[in-house]
Structures are given as C-alpha cells and as structure tokens.
Amino acid sequence: HCRRLARPPHRPPPSPFGERDKQEVVANARPPMSAEPEQKRLCKRQRTDKLGGNSLVRERKSEGAMSTNSDGVADMMADVVVDEALHSRQIAVYGKESMKRLATARVLVCGMRGLGAEVAKNVILAGVKEVAVQDTEPAAVRDLGAHFYLLEEDVGKNRAEACAPRLQDLNRAVNVRALTAAMDEEMVSNFDVVVMTDIGSEEALRFDDWCHANGVAFIKADVRGLFGAIFCDFGPSFVVEDIDGEEPHTGIVSSISQAFPALVTCVEDERLEFQDGDEIAFSEVKGMEQLNTGGPFKVKNVKPSSFEIECDTTAFGAYSTGGLVTQHKRAKEL
C-alpha cells in the first residue's frame, strides 16, 4: 500500500538580516537613477494639467448665444460650465473653446431614420445644451433594423416621440425633446444648428437660404447604401479657433534676460518646436511676473533651447524661477 505524504506548508527562507538591519537597508536605499529633480517634475506636471490633463477644475464662462464682432472673435455670455473630468477626452480632441460652444448649442435633427438617429446620438453624447428630434411619420417595421432606439412595440407610433426617451438616457445633462409638427422657419429659428436627413433637394434649398440669411448653421446629410453625402452652410463666414488641430508647442523656462529683445532660455533636455514669427504666452513665471499677464509675444531667432521675444524687459523684475511658455494660436476667419 502507498501512503500519500502531506506536503509541509511552504515557509520562506530566513532573512540573513535582522529586523534592525532590514530597517537600515530600507532607510539607506538610494533613489532610482532616473529620478528627476523635484522642481522639474513639478513643472512637467503643471504643464500637463494646463494642456488638458485629468484636471477636476471647472471653468465658468459665459452662457448664451454666440456673437461675432468685427475682428471675427466669438464672444460668450456668462455662466457656461465645462466639466473637464467628464469631457477630458473630448477636450483633448476638440479643444476647450469648441467645448464651450458645444455647451451652449441647440441642435435640431430632422428625420429619425437610421442616419438621423445616429446623428442625434453622437450630438447628445458630445454634451450640447439641447437636442430636438423632429419627424412626422410613424415607425414602420423596416425602421427597427436601422438603429437601436425603436422597439417592436413602437411600430405605428411617431418616430421622434418613440426615440426621444431612449436618446435622453444617453446623456441626462442634455435636454432632449421630440417635435412631431411639420418643419417650418419658425421651428428652425429656435436653434443654432439644423441637421436635415430626410428631406428633398428643393425643400433643402429653401431652408438653406433661410438659415444662411438668419445665422443658423445648416447641414444636409444623406446615405445611399455604402455611399453618403453631406452639405454644410455655416453662413457668410465662420471663425476657426484652431487652424491645424495640433497641440500647442510648449517649453519649461530656465532663465529670462532683462534686455530688449529679451532672451528666453528653456531646459536643454527638451528641444523647442517654435518657429520664427510664432506667438507665445507665459505663465507661472516668478520674479518677472509682468510676462504672465502680458502678451502674446512674437518670437524670433529660435534655437534648440532658446529664443528671443520682442519685448523690453529691462524695467521688469529680475527672473527668479519657474515658468511655462505655450504657443498662442490666433483665430482665423474663413
């Protein structure tokens, strides 16, 4: 007969160090070779937060309709709240200015078939102020395979009224409502953007002419199997806040001279990507605080880790420490 022997419990080998020796080893442990000075790591973290990292700070700006002045700059009224924790990924793609505009936008989506429902879904998830879905037709069996917001029991009901509650569940922060009346100019006048997906060419031209004359952004979209078409009319002109969609170039300041032009030197381990003629803005500079509120400043004589600014700093306080420099992008009217 074979007898299975029980395996004794595993015990780690005894440490060659006593308890006191282990405490001394931990206390005398050296930091990793890749550790950076505290000031440099702090500057990098502050720069990341400024570029739209996981900041939980909410910005309060103005609420209401946007107006464009003679310089083509979009003005906002008071009290728009942009939740950076909720929209951090969208801010990284769209930018803060676009998110502020989205937060006040009222959008009308006409036609609740497959394309209209998809447009409404994406706009609601983007976090606009209000979305109205409009349709005059009842849901048919074939509509059930076009999107996820109609069920079998909705057949025979108005498509907009049947879709609205499920679209609302996507984002409770957006006001979603259904419109079942025929579309006319009075209805369109209550919105900033109108998207038409189920409309003929002649009627689309009539609404486009009215929207163009009354400052309402007009979009007509259509799909035919694997092919799609879209027409956009945003008025006589519109302002592009970010002309290239790239993250603004940045640098960590290490010194600034008191001269004209002033020489700005940045840390050497990060090559500057500015070009002559670019505009930059300063923040968190200590000693020469006048630069934090001035600008933007035009740069010239750009080197891998330094550049000059067209600013006389001889009367400014002496540079002490800190500072971030960020590329300033000017809006462009098209």
Describe this entry's structure for a reader.
- The chain is an alpha+beta fold and 334 residues long.
- The chain has three domains: 55-99, no CATH class; 105-240, NAD(P)-binding Rossmann-like Domain (Rossmann fold, 3-Layer(aba) Sandwich), CATH 3.40.50; 250-333, Ubiquitin-activating enzyme E1, FCCH domain (Elongation Factor Tu (Ef-tu), domain 3, Beta Barrel).
- Helices cover 24% and strands 25% of the residues.
- It contains nine helices and 18 strands.
- It has helices spanning 19-27, 38-50, 88-94, 96-102, 114-126, 159-168, 185-188, 201-214, 290-293, and strands spanning 58-62, 67-68, 74-75, 79-83, 106-110, 130-134, 175-179, 193-196, 217-224, 227-233, 239-240, 250-256, 262-266, 279-283, 297-300, 306-309, 324-328, 332-333.
- The strands form five sheets. Strands 7-6-5-8-9-10 form a six-stranded mixed beta sheet, with helices on both faces. The protein has a six-stranded antiparallel β-barrel with strand order 12-13-16-15-14-17.
- The longest helix has 14 residues, at 201-214.
- It is elongated, with a radius of gyration of 29 Å.
- The model is unreliable at 20-78 (pLDDT under 50).
- Residues 1-70 are annotated as: Disordered.
- One of its GO terms (cellular component) is cytoplasm.
- Belongs to the ubiquitin-activating E1 family.
